[in-house]
Input
Amino acid sequence: MVFLDYTPSTSILHRLSIEAKLIILTATLILSFIYTDPLYVSVILVAVLTMVCSTKLPLQRIKSVLRALTPIMIFVVIFSGLGFEAHSFRSEWAEHTILEILLFRISVGGVLMGVTITLRLLILVVSTSLVSATTRLEQYVVLAKKLRLPYELIFAFLIAIRFIPVLMNELENMMSALQARGVELEKGGFVQKLKGRIPLMVSMITLGIKKSDELSIALQIRGFGASENVTVLYQSRLSLTDYMVIAITLSLLGVGVYLRINNYGVL
Amino acid sequence: MRRVRLAIGGEHVENSRVYAVEVDKLTFRYRNSTSYALKGVSFKVRKGEFFTIVGPNGSGKTTLALSLVGVIPHYIEGEYYGSVFVDGIDVRSRTVLEMVTRIGLVMQNPDVQIVGITVRDDVAFGLCNLGLPRELIIDRIDRALEAVRLKGYEDRLTHTLSSGERQRLAIAGVLSLEPNVVVADEPTSQLDPAGKIEFFNVIHELNRRRGKTVIVITSDVEWALRFSDRVGLLVEGRLLFLGPPREFVARVDLEELTRHGVRAPQVLHLYHKLINCRAASTDLKPWLHAEEAYLELRSVIGRESCAACGDEEAAREGEAGAGEELAIDVRNLWYVYPGGIVALRDVSLKIRRGEFVAIVGQNGSGKTTLVKHFNGLLKPTRGQVLVCGVDTRRRSVAELAQRVGFVSQNPDLQIFTSSVRDEVALGVRSGRLPAEEIEKRIEWVLNLTGLKDLEREHPYKLSRSERVLLVLASALALNPEIVVVDEPTAGLDWRGVQNVMKVLAELHRKGLTIVVVTHDMDIVARYAERVVVMHKGEVALNGGPRDILYSDILPQLSIEPPPIVRIMKNLNKHGYCLKPLTVDEALEKIMRCRGVGLPGLHAQHIDTP
Output
């Protein structure tokens, strides 16, 4: 769950405002996408990993994500090695051919490009989960309010997140109940499994409708819609650290873009 | 349709100084219903009063609650006569939103009422909706959480709270708006005894210390008598009684109460039976709860200790009908949830074929985790569970379902089809039985559970107790040898409880092994041959109901024995040695103490078991 995996801590990233973090995230992603040389991109990855270590968060989750991504990453390296035409690279050494099978030519540049794409993918996954793990839900809400998104929209989003664990729990109970009745859910092929789950879906929808009825009464009782000006409980003012971090990030981004314009970091 | 009665300004302004709520001849029919949910209900609740309405399921309790806060008729439409005034204001003249700071409602299901992701967010929700200044909101959150004893929980995620904590959070959400009147609709039906006690303590404190007018709507008469200033009895949309608890105890007709599906507490039964046994009933004052009953009996019975010791029952219990063959054999079972929480620690338990076993314990003690091993929904982390001699790890849940019928807590999460008959058929049809056999089984369970007449109905049209029976019937259609039921009576009124327990007792008579997880000590006392008390993931006690319910360490395990046991345990401190479990047994015991001070007791009124 992207928005519920906030892990409390007192690290710098935890204390930074969401604006500062989103600026770092954006800068990181821009930089990792303008460079094609894996060396340059790996510098960015190292920077991101340093930030991860500074938060002292448990790394299990990221590890499991990486494990799931491994086959995709291998796939990417192979296919981009095949896919990029040698003459599309600027440097000579990148045009060298490593292997030639039938009509396919695997070039040095192609493989390196594959490595770059993989590194980009890693940066994307690690940096976004870093933001979600260090940012409280209410900070997003505050931001959404600052961006003048309508309260109803923000609220609908919040209520959805609130009820995810409830619905997951109910679904699990219903699956248990079906099995306890002698209905096999784990055996058989895909079609058979799907067929076994049809009653679940029907029930979930019925329950959902019932719940939304009750919920609308509950919202009335709690004064939803009583006032035009809904109070935002949490405030966020940018601190000196935030401003400093934003300034540093933007200058680094500037330097990075400047280098790229002068053809550094390109294959 | 609506008959708008204009308030005669002066009268209601005058009354609003005395009364927080005035309900006058309230009548309501839901738009799609043919009968009236409320039929001319009238009552007035004084400011600062603790008022309770008791009644069975389907008596119009929730309709009344929704009318008090104005959801009816503003939000749910129908035929509406009469009036509801809160603080001297007709609820029809204002929107629900305008009334939220005057009257608040705690709904039956806290899961729906809690909308925040963290505890703080949830309490803040109503306040933010009103657009109050931030500083005031923070202050109010603090006070509301303190009032419900949830201080320090601000950053907890709401879905990780226990059901008792969630119910109290729901109160805090309502309370933060600072209404003068707090209405709670069946607030304790989903709570364990510890949660119930905590709830009533909190709401009682609100009433006494903070001067809130409290209206509790419940089917639990025992608690209503203990805490209320006045009690109203609502049956089929009519208020049959209205008065102080003591008057209720003295005047109420128990048979009628039971017929209407209201469970009368044991203390009430005992009082009435004693009164009936006595020639002169003048010197027995009506009591409200076990502690009062004890004091009263103590002064009436006299001081001589009694020779009639209740050992013979204890001896009888051990040898109840069960054979030596084991139905379930739990050997050194450990279970650790994926998060690392140890739910069961080295549990060993043998359940013989044909036994009726009750598993009790506080929420979180591991009861449900334990029984989920009986049909393989959970597999042991360490140790072994044998069902009819077969290791559960070697069978799928669906295979074990042929031997173990399993009914979990909420019937609504166990119903999947659109008719009673299809529902019962769902499980059997997925097997490989011949068609005639399937039909035979379906007929059998429908008749056994009394659902035959309802076989074409949509399950959602059934009452809650019928839905519980339906889920039970669906499990029974597979013809299991063992039936495991988790909290079958939660949220049911007395009629529902009896209907469900009757079926279980019948199955037990037929030789099936029955395992019931329950908080209801009346059921334990009445039906169980053996009681297993779980505490912190371990089996704390295991034995006959008499030994267990009279055990001195029970309170340490957060279990409150039934009122009769509490009365007798107090009496036993004075040299008696009485261990009755039911009202009739207690009556016989008291009488056998040769009526010292109870000269009017006549033996012929009591059927000796």
Observations:
- Chain B touches chain A through 73 residues (CB under 8 Å).
- The first strand of chain B starts at residue 19 and ends at 30.
